Amino acid sequence: MEERIVIVGAGQAGGELAAGLRKQGYKGRVLLLGDEAHPPYQRPPLSKGFLQGKVALTDLYLKPLASYERFDIELKPGTRVEAIDRATKEVSLGDGSRLAYDKLVLATGGRARPLSVPGLAGARPENLFSLRSIADVEAMRGRFIPGNRLVIIGGGYVGLEVAAVAVQLGLRVTLLEAAPRLLCRVTGPEVSAFIEKLHRERGVELRLSCEVRSMELDEARRQVREVGFACQGVQERLEADLVLVGIGLIPNTELASAAGLAVDNGIVVDEYACTADPDILAIGDCANQPSAYTGGRIRLESVPNAIEHARVAAATLMGKREPSAAIPWFWSDQYGLKLQMVGLSTGHEQCVTRGSVEGKEFSAFYLKDRRVIAADVIGRPAEFMAAKRLVSSRVQVDAARLGDAAVPLASLAA
Amino acid sequence: MAKIKFIEANGKQHEVEAEEGQSVMQAATNNLVPGIVAECGGFASCATCHGYVDEAWLTKLPPPDAAEEGMIACAFHVQPNSRLTCQLKMTPALDGLVVRLPVSQTEE
Ligand SMILES: Cc1cc2nc3c(=O)[nH]c(=O)nc-3n(C[C@H](O)[C@H](O)[C@H](O)COP(=O)(O)OP(=O)(O)OC[C@H]3O[C@@H](n4cnc5c(N)ncnc54)[C@H](O)[C@@H]3O)c2cc1C
Ligand code: FES
Known about the structure:
The complex is a heterodimer. Chain A is of the alpha/beta class. Chain A is built from twelve helices and 26 strands. Chain A has a five-stranded parallel β-sheet. In chain A, strands 9-16-10-11-12 form a five-stranded parallel β-sheet, covered by helices on one side. A five-stranded antiparallel β-sheet of chain A has the order 22-23-26-25-24. In chain A, strand 11, helix 7 (189-201) and strand 12 form a beta-alpha-beta unit. Chain B is an alpha+beta fold. Chain B has three helices and five strands. Chain B has a five-stranded mixed β-sheet with strand order 2-1-5-3-4. The complex binds flavin-adenine dinucleotide (FAD) and FE2/S2 (inorganic) cluster.
């Protein structure tokens, strides 16, 4: 019988893997199963151009449906995998049927972390949203109208990008963040302060060090009316027409753990994307992988990471061994300003900026032992790759020269 | 419909059909042309859709805007005829376009 690779999750990583296998000349069957109604699509524009109405639905699709057919990728949208039977090498599907595999790849991504506060138990208010899928944006659309009061819980990328779109569309936006600064987990205080100013200037109300305590629903329990919170000890209430919760992601690891595979902040895989079962791999947001960059294990949530994992898994499935050596990077877009980040700044000892913070064009370099471990590049795209090289080469740099925009970055990389 | 010929760094050729208005990058990914990674999906943020536009065609294209120029500056293996394929929209005048691909989009 023809060999079959079954991919669970038709998202960025799963779609890329299916295409990658065909690009590499894989001759067996490729089945791509996804529980959403759509073919693989890009999520980044969901909180940017698509929410704003500037990007059309079909432009989100990574490839048109015809491409899957032409390259003999058996794409099955609307198909949920319920369980893995490792003994018989089968998966069971939502409709009760079973499907055999020779190799199985879990590319299940994650789901939005729900907010648990008193008042919400058992209710599913129509104006309380999270943002992970096309369906989420479609549900929110009708309420994105000028004058509406939007309360955003969470000052990470998704929350901030939605805030930017919403104020530009004329909504009244208040963002509540638990930490004392924005983007606390991913950037340094200098960049947090810059982003904070950027949003305040555009009219976003920001509340930092703020704990959400309650939600008040209407009598029918179908709408959130008020959000109650404590901000630096002071109790407050805010009326809301809609509420967005953007407080992170929970990796979809249940299939793996029910099948007895190791799960620890993601499905545990090696540098070739393999789990302990030689016939099961995991990639993308749901996978926890060794990282050559940190020397430890890491689970990342980004498109470049999903694509890199798919590349590594395709090689593994083709019988090659090409470990991942990529350096984490990420981009965001707020008010048309390009933000590009490379590396992880955790544990840095010094931050050096180059360029003009006031002019909204600067790079922030995070140093440890005189080496650049990470950088945030804002409105200076030409500097991004040089920054990437500094991070990957691990060369020691002179902080004064690094901060001097007259010294070409490339000359520091050596 | 217009034709585009992609030539991989190893010389392998791929002739594909593109619709008018579609980006050159999209035509490549729809047809599974290896060598175009397109991490950012066409928003001039990643420089992993970089290609060399054959000289004869270069003059038929609008010049790169500031965003594209900035990103080309940070791509790998840049040449004078380097462009971001996600920023090139197909028009009937571009029928027959030839785009060569760099050895790698993601490393030196
Ligand atoms: C709003 C938003 C904005 C973002 N912006 C950026 C950005 O600017 N830059 C960036 O680099 N990254 C960004 N990201 C992150 C990026 O989109 C993800 O890292 C990437 O999509 C991960 O790909 P994945 O394939 O691992 O998971 P996903 O793309 O989430 O795909 C997983 C798929 O598997 C399906 N699935 C799960 N379980 C099952 C099952 N049992 N059976 C069948 N199907 C199943 C899911 O429904 C989903 O369709 C953003 C994400 C969001 C939500
Ligand atoms: S696809 Fe990212 S720059 Fe073209």
